Amino acid sequence: MKTILIPIDLSSRSYHTAHFGLELAHQLGGSVLLLHVVHPSPSAPSLSIPMVEMDSDSRKSSSYDQLTTDLQHFEDELNDYRREAGMLDVKISSRMVVGQPVEAILEVAHSEHPAFVVMGTVGASNAWDKMVGSVSSAVAQEVRRPLWILPNATRLNTLRKFAYFAELAGSEVSCIDQVLDLGEKLRARVNVVHVSPVEEEDFLEAEAITEMFEVSYAAKRITFQNLMFDTVADGIETYVKLHWPDAVVLAHRDWGMVARLFHRSAIRQLALTTRRPLLILQKQN
User: Fold this and answer.
1) Residue 94: in which H helix or E strand, if any?
2) Where are the transmembrane segments (predicted)?
């Protein structure tokens, strides 16, 4: 059974994220795993404490009792939503761990191998956020599972136009197939967009590749488009502003250091500032 991993902080925003994850699990015939990470100390260094399950001493504390109550209340409300929405086929479970949020989420994503991770995001609001980014954007740079980042309340059935910004390199066919498969389940149209920087001479090569893709995917609800801008980031931002896709899709892979840092910065910027759902896929070289 496919698992949808949903990290939550028990805030009102988490309910929106959990509702989307529940709808996704229902669509895929899967289950939901809620993950709440308890920060060990506000002053603890970000990489000093590994993720651990709650020990027996922690379970005896009043703070643990309150956290357990809050988590159970969250799960109860999500179960109410599940019943009202007619999604009783979706199993909901929860887990609470102690650790740094980013490291804990990555560890659980690695061990549980979920079909998708679903997270919310908050824009950079102070100097610390601007320096290191939100938890969502940090997870986006390292996670090895498909990741949804939701900027606000989003209903899965409202996603009718996907824009996948493709490099036309690496395991591109696999990524296109993933987006297309999800699009078909949601009855959504997919547009694959490649942005060529002006200073690079790959536009004609990209045109030839997309022509081959157009032939291969002729029977599918998918289109292909090549654009030329000063930078890839400029092209993505301009396209999104002009065409207003319901969801933006990116893929990242391990590659050369300079290129990787550039691509990660683009992902981080979109994760922090996008006003529409962002799906990030892992691409093989």
Assistant:
1) strand 92-98
2) none
